[in-house]
Amino acid sequence: MRDAIITLDGATRRFKRGHAVITAVDAISLAVERGTFTAIMGKSGSGKSTLLHLMSGLLTPDAGRVELLGNDAGQLSDNDLTLLRRDYIGFIFQFFNLLPSLTAAENVALPLLLARRPRGQALSRAREMLATMGLADRVDHKPDELSGGQMQRVAIARALINDPPLLFADEPTGNLDSVAGEEVLLLLKDLQTRQGRTIVMVTHDAKAAAYGDRIITLRDGRVQQDIATGGVAV
Amino acid sequence: MSVKHGILGILADGPRHGYELKTQFDGLTGGLWDLNVGQIYSTLERMRKDGLVALEESGEGADERKTYRVTDAGREELDGWLQAPPLRPRPLRDEFFVQLGLLIDRNRPAALALINGVRRVHHLRLASLTRQKVLLARSQERGRIHRELLLDAALLHVEADLTWLDRCEERLGALGGGPQAERPPP
Amino acid sequence: MNGLYTSLSRTYLLAKKRRTAMTVIGIALGVTMVTAVALTTAALVANYRSVLEGIGGRAELQVTSIGGLGFPAAIRDEVAVVPGVRAAVPAVSSGAPVLAGERKAAASFYGILPDQEALVRDYRITDGRLPLAAGELAITDELAERLSAGPGDTVQLLSTAGFAPFTVVGVFRAQGTVRGTLGPFGVLPLAEAQRIFGRPGKLDTVDLLLEPQAKRAEVKARVEQVLAGRARAGTPADRARDMDSLLDSLIFALGIAGSISLFSGGFIIYTNVGMGVTERRRELSVLRALGMRRGEVVRLVLGEAALMGAAGAAIGLLLGYGLAVGMVEQLTRQFLAIYGIEAAGARLGPANIAAGLAVGIGVAVFAAWGPSRETVAISPVEAMRQGELTRPEERHGLRRALIGGAITMLAGAGIIAVWTWGDLSSPLTRQIGGGLLMAFLLGIVVLMPVLLPLLNRWLLRPLAQAMFGFTGRLATDNLMRHPRRTAATASALMVSLTFMVAMGGFAAAQRATLEDWFRQTVGWDLLVSSSYELIGAQVEMDPAFVEDLRAVSGVRIASPQRFSRIIMGDGAPAFLQVFDHTLLPMYSSPPLDQGDWQEGVQRLQAGGAVMISTPLADRLGLGMGDELELLTPSGPQRFRIVGIQKELAPFGGTVHLDRRDYVTYWNDQTVTVVALVTEDGADPAAVQAEIMRRYGAERNLTVQTNQGYWDAMMERVAGFYRLMDGLIWVSILVSGLAIANTLFSGLLERRREFGILRATGARRAETMRVVVGEALSTGAVGGLFGLGAGLLMFLLMVQSSQQFNGTAVDLRFPWVATLTALGVALILAPMVGLLPARWAARMDVVEALRYE
Questions:
Q1: What CA–CA distances, in Å, run from B35 to B3, B29, B66, C126?
Q2: Is the pTM of this model over 0.80?
Q3: Interface of B with A in 82-141 (CB under 8 A)
Q4: How far apart are CA C274 and CA C279, in angstroms?
Q5: Which among A37, A213, C628, C670 has most CB atoms closer than 10 A?
Q6: Are C388 and A79 a contacting pair at CB < 8 A?
Q7: How many structural domains comprise chain A?
Q8: Is residue B130 in a domain?
Q9: Which residue segment(s) compose the domain that B141 sits in?
Q10: So what's the ipTM on this one?
Q11: C138 within domain boundaries
Q12: Residues B22 and B66 reside in one and the same domain
């Protein structure tokens, strides 16, 4: 057994929808090993996003335990969870979620700036990061001047600026055309295989999930299928 | 009969012997079309009888090789085929269709389990195709576009199969587990 | 189609409850502001008007005295026979304190002829009858209640010779033509009034009723001929000019406050409704794509705006009424009490309701019109596409800068021109000046979005960064995304602060000026008056009493002083101050703008000379050595001007005269106050006690110490500014709430951005800092512009104070007002931001990320 970076033990999360209580994640137990690429699949409403949020500490479980980077997420204060996210976790979202008032470089530097690192240093690191993403000529553009693929690469650069060992991607290709989507997936695959980062990705696209070396399919808040694709070697 | 036409196409660039033909055919189909040398030779023999290719023997003794070249009739056949769309869509033939058909009314849980099993196979297939794609993308080799297109075709087909499996599961799930009690599985 | 509209609107408004609520609250705040100020002003103006109406009743012409001392009763018989005059009804009036047992009240009293009175005024008697015989009195129900007295009870009226007992014979309801007489009052037989108020053989007014076909102007001319300068004739409206010019200033200031409120309230509504429509752009485009015509979409949006406008207006009317009653009215009462006027309460009338609805609905519809036109102007497809990133506001930078700059410059130049060359005592000029001031501020508002980016680079960003680090910078950048919205929100605060700085600064400068004057001029130790200083009703004392006071041990000087209002040759009033100049120089040396005090005193002692104040000299176009003609009861008299005084009393100019001249020409020996200087070593407090012991009860004296007088004077000045302050703080409060409201609405729009911040590692405290930083920046913009405009206005007010207010004010930098304004901008605004900030910090990250 390799080193687990995330461990869920009977993790449960419920939501209220009107008067009904929905169990979005129903007593799921699983472990994510360091350096793996896990894809979480499922139809909308299957609980896959909630599972991602639980795994990443954006949500805490109503019941059960979530152990994240060696911490019991349920026991951490909001501040500690925030710091954990800031320093050890990167997020990539479907809607890119860039701040429209900031340039690409500033968006990338955001986590560093929030951590009160010197501005010049933060921005030059952001520029380097963008250059490695092939966006050297876009550093001073505002998000509305970038294409979808470029925006997502900026978002990935932002997720990586703190050199986090753990990356979460929520439908990262959902808003991209297939070519841009593949580029993003290749990038993620490289981040795993060449840089040894752990990636957890939610997707409803089987082709995207095929980049993972483990595919977990959810149904009604439970794990329906957990497939090891044996692809770690690539 | 596209093996025949594939061979004609390769020979149009110049004479080849049997093994060369096999290698180039694999390249053409991205290795997705399992074909052995025997099938190549039997096809070539049929084409020779039909006058589409001619056999040229060269070398002596241990060096002796059988080389094939295309005839004028072969060229004509190739040109006609290249420009003609297929008359029928690709046939869908899968043993799972038969399995499913037999299980639906007899044992629905077994049908659902089978669907899951098939899905696992498809996911593994997708993963292996994706691996090839990743390797291809990293290799930066020239002219990889054709292989990428073929891999995409395969990926999209498997994806379609997976989508269909989801639908099967959904429809069967909606029916409930009725027929199981009446007839136990054979 | 109508049914569809309603259901679409209802669905939208209910689905976006928070958005709708914020918009309605925004409208409500705007209407609150307008209503509170309007009600306060209305209450004040109504009181003011009713004074005038009450005095005149149905009279079409009125004969009044020149010096405020009455005129010979014979004049009534002379004017009664002037052709065109149907009736001449005489009256004597005075304010006096009245006592019933332990209860005290201040009231106006009218000496009337009961048989003739009904011609001009209606009395609705509820109990008893009008007074007919000596010692009888009728009072309003209000006064009866206050004194807890009814028919048959005895009350004491303070007269020139002390208390006089009266029996109440009637109680009437103050209404109709007498309601206006304002607050509590009483009537007594004319002869009695002449006796107790020291006006034997004299009248204060004669109300004239004209023959139906007579022309008023002609009759007036004929009456004036008969009067020959012994008294004057005027229409009741002319009396308006007799009122303190300070009241005029107040009405003007209230008018400006009303404009501010309309201005700020309008902006608050505009911003909120505009945001709502912009946010809905995509949804509206779907409707367009589905086949709704442009006009229909616009109508739908405007209908919703009107609906929200009506709801907001309803809330705003209630809040505004509450504010007016709870806070502002209190201040009005305090202020009016100084003038012996009891304020009627604020009333929410149909006109206010109509105005509130008009402002709420009108501005909301106007605000919705622009964005809704913009929405239907672009193709629906384009509008639907811009989902992810809101397009930045279109920038008409240059055009806007030109328009804004032009308005600001023109209005600024206009203000300077009016202030420099205009006649600021005329209401029209003031209205033009006020209008220009509004235009000037409007120009700044138009200009502000263009200036914001510059301001951001040089001030806001460094400021926010220094205070909140990177999150602060995020805040200012957020604001810059909507320069127009930011400008509109900051404008409300700007306008409020402008007036705060100007008024506060002016108040402080005036106080300092008065302090200087007081040190030089008021050298007496005690001031004796037979009056209730608090209510302003004064009763003159007889000269013999001055001698009595001189005899009190410890008194070195007893100096009689007589003050009254006189009408100058130009028909406008002035304040007549009469001193004994053998005594005055021993304890006072008032500052002169022209002339020498010692020399002037000698000339005054010699007789035939006056000193006048600078504004009066300017008004009449007279200077040193010129002759001033005064209308005296013995006919016009000419006096040589021997000094020009600095003016510090807001009574439209001062005439300073020697007592001997006054006694000669006015034939009046009475004394308003007696200034006492105590012997060296004598304790003023002991002397005060002694005087009160000997004469206090008999004459109901007030003896003020030097300090007490200063305090009372300050109280008068403060009363005015407290009222202004109240209104200003109401508008600042509403502006602050508007900032919070706009921030809230902005947060609703940008929920996901806050989700991203939180997800990428911003702690709750840091998220709060972003929002507080936005509030701070908005406050700083409003504060900066408000401070600038306020200082400018302050400068103009000080420079024109002499003409504007009738009093001179020395220029002093308004530190306190400046610091207060800065405090509001840099401390209050961020504090207001805490509320939305907490909401932002507590937002569920996952929810926020999902928010579209």
A1: 9, 10, 20, 122
A2: no
A3: 116, 119-120, 122-124, 126-131, 134-135, 137
A4: 9
A5: A37
A6: no
A7: 1
A8: yes
A9: 95-181
A10: 0.79
A11: yes
A12: yes
